[in-house]
Amino acid sequence: MKKKLYQITTFGSGSFPDYECPKCGAHLKTGEPGLFDSAYTKESRKHNDEHDQDHENGVFHVCLTCTRPSCGESIVVVGTTYMDELHDDDYLHNRERVFITLCTPQYFIPPLEMFKIPDATPHRVKECIKASFNLFFVSSGSALNEIRNAIEFLMDELKVPRKGLDANGVEERWDLDKRVAKMPNQDGVNVKGYLLAIKNLGNWGSHAVDTDRNDVLDAYDLLSHVLEALYVKRDKAMQELAKRIKDDERAK
Predict the structure, then answer these.
(1) Which DSSP helix (H) or strand (E) runs through 176?
(2) Does residue 27 contact residue 21 with C-beta atoms inside 8 Å?
(3) Are residues 87 and 192 located together in one domain of the fold?
(4) Are residues 139 and 228 in the same domain?
(5) Would you state the pLDDT for residue 16?
(6) C-alpha closest to that of 62 among 19, 26, 108, 22
């Protein structure tokens, strides 16, 4: 996962980040010149009678296209804009004010995918992750909440019940902590620690705790590893490799 790419919050209207196609993973490029469209908001015009550029706020939409000819996927991006003053050598020389339009994306349709979801991932888990991707640019808390939902559904798929008996034999509802604790190891893979960390991040998103994009990216990083361990078996392969090296005669 390219964390640095998704840590970018704003960029110039003519310099979109090197986003990847959600369908095939190839790079996306902006369409033909003139397809980028923006306009100042009514509220911005209302409170800016003097037309000071550094007070202009607007909205934009643009179409991105996959660079792989065999794919050709199109993605529409919508978001907000604002003007920022550019301080460069020319400005220092002639004191002429120069402004650039900066864009803050909010929605990608279809949404980008910050990490590849393994094909074998259960459908309901996939849907929660995709919902999180859709919310990534507009609400960190909501994106984290969807990842927490994905963990709940993952427990369902792994046959971990939502209810059980307490010490007195009375039925009780199990919270996600207890469900993760009750989760059996899958083919020798133990990912409980990762899941609890993801759960904590998801709780912060659910309970209106101050969260940011880096928290969401951390959750994606952990969840990506969990899903690969469970549905690609890479973690098991690495454990077996480590054991072979440990048991090698040369290590004795």
Answers:
(1) helix 176-182
(2) yes
(3) no
(4) yes
(5) 87
(6) 108
